[in-house]
Amino acid sequence: MIRPFSNGTQWLDWEASNCDRCTKLDKCELRDALNVAYYGDGSVPTEIGARLAYTADKYIWQCGEVEWTEEWKSEFLARQRR
């Protein structure tokens, strides 16, 4: 078991940067596991951590299974062109 977030605020920041911009939304095993962890002790199985692409040296990282929405891709590319 691993604890990917040090507190609820970090989890919410990560969720906003990944889950809220993903096409899977409420159909994601990873988000389900993180929700259970949020209401529990904050721990997820090591396998879930690997699928999340969890890295202990970053506050927020890109999920290993994120599928960006077209809207988010457009926003990202527009920022890159500035």
Descriptive tags:
82 residues, globular
| Low-pLDDT windows of residues | none
Rounded Rg: 13 Å
Globally, the shape reads: globular
Total count of domains: 1
Distance between the termini: 42 Å
Strand tally = 0
Give the biggest beta sheet: none
Q: How do the helices and strands follow one another from N- to C-terminus?
A: HHHH
What fraction strand?
under 5%
Mean pLDDT, to the nearest integer, reads 93
As a percent range, the share of helical residues equals 40-55%
Class by SSE composition: mainly alpha
Helix tally?
4
How would you describe what is shown here?
By secondary structure, the chain is mainly alpha-helical. It has one domain (8-81). It is built from four helices and no strands. The chain has helices at 8-17, 29-39, 46-51, 70-81. The protein is globular.
Briefly say what this structure is.
This protein has four helices and no strands. The chain has 82 residues and is mainly α.
